[in-house]
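## tool: complex_structure
## caller: assistant
## args:
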Amino acid sequence: MTRFLFRRIAILIPTLIFVSIIIFGLQQLLPGDPAIAMAGEERDPQAIAEVRAKYNLDKPLPVQYWLWISGVLQGDFGESIRIQMPVARLLVEKLPVTIELAVLAMIVALAIGLPMGVISALYNGRWPDYVANVVGLWGLSTPNFWLGIMLILLFSVELGWLPASGYISPTEDLWGNLESMIMPAFVLGNAIAAVMMRHTRSAMLQVLSSDYIRTARAKGLFERVVIAKHAFRNAAVPVITLGALEFGQLLSGAVLTEQIFSIPGFGKLIVDAVFNRDYAVVQGVVLCTATAYIVLNLLADIAYFLVNPRLRS
Amino acid sequence: MSEAVIAAPAATNPAAEQSPARRAFKRLLKRKGAVIGLAVVLLFLALAVFAPLIAPFDPTEANWGAVRGAPSLDNLFGGDELGRDVLSRVIFGARASLLAGVVSVAIALAIGIPLGLLSGYAGGLVDGILMRITDAMLAVPFLILAIALAAFLGPSLTNAMIAIGISATPIFVRLTRAQVQAVRVEDYIEAARAVGNPPLRIAFRHILPNIWPALMVQATLTIASAIIAEASLSFLGLGQQPPAPSWGSMLNSAKDFLTQAPWMAVYPGISIFIIVLSFNLLGDGLRDALDPRHRE
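## result:
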């Protein structure tokens, strides 16, 4: 276990370094002088010089990178040009909202994807399998921002059941929070549900053809016990670990979902920052999501290692 | 005698005389989903190419008499907030979507394949460095990387295509590398090396044709993701710029008029859904036809 962990972390560190170099390098893509681009509307040479000095743009690139990453490692992601607030504070404020959305979306994805995958595998080649596959293809092919708009049209505009947009903190009003999050969570979880369905189906098909399932049936166990206790338990392990890898997809989807439903999370933060040329915020959000994704990957690997006795031995 | 014995199966089995590509195409045509997907993709391609001949109106021309007009015989899909014909904009919007899908995947292939070949074939330190860079790029979620790139490059369809292409590159680097590692130990590669072929020739003449099917399947599925990514970037205002039509930007303006003109949101969204579904069906069919593990 220690050796496995050591090896995984040994790969993780250079990956994180390359992530930081890529994110730092984004700034170099700014057309022309980055100082002029970052100064925005200001064309005053003194203002441009101030920006250049403040963001160390007058220093060589390796020095600029070193100064930036040293700050990041101490929790200093720079300052938002628009809000005049430390980026780290903004990230800490917005992160819980996106985490809540991601967790709710994952619950939706598991609640739809796992049973559908099991049913699809149990009725392999029959109509429930086809229905599940069609629903899976629907989930993979529907742009979530369009699905969001259609749900607003149905549940908010036509039926008036749910709020079209906005966010209420769960500490303020738990029921109001759930009402405002149910549509975004469904929209975001829809695509992941399709992926989970496909993973579950293939894992269940594999498990159902294995010897121990035949043995369980041969000794006269009820079919539901065979499915629930022997087949699903074993099939769910790789599926749940793969689910952790879908986190990246969740974060990508959250950008659009938060935009449609006006949820003040990470996604809305990065889009607003893009339009306000608030590059420090863009870099901060990208760095945070990438780090979260890498750490989740590591945790998924460890979880898979822990629950799989063959790997442990 | 032995010649006759060897020649006999080929003479009785016409399929053996066909090229692998032809046999794969025949297998593809046996799959209903893939055929429907291919037909719809070709239909949208025709719509995009012949848009000026098919579209009933100029997609950028405002008509104040049809502002948010409901679908009618004159405007089959209704009018938008400036009275522009939604049907014409949907037809012209196919151009942006298909162009973005194909060009961004071409960019990803053009960068990803040579890097994957190099990584898989060279191994060692080169492979180690390239894989860490690939891991780093894969660690940033696809759309977030595309948004960040588009933000720094500036909003336009060209920059959106570049951003999506770069974001999709690591998928092809990884896939090419894995395929190269699988085939580099084959006897025919050993033979090519033994007769003195230089590494570059082995990579492009002997390895690439053998890993091409897997790349084609992935490319088809990535076009579907790229079309959604372009629509997403245009929806956020980072892709196609107004007044040029794009399904994503049409949905962006539609969301402000949901109560007055819901048709503005319905048709561009259905178009994205249909084209993405078709590419997914085609990709699944190609995988079944080309990958022996997926064949029945």
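## assistant note: The CA atoms of residues 192 and 202 of chain B lie 7 Å apart. DSSP finds twelve helices and no strands in chain B. Handing back to user.
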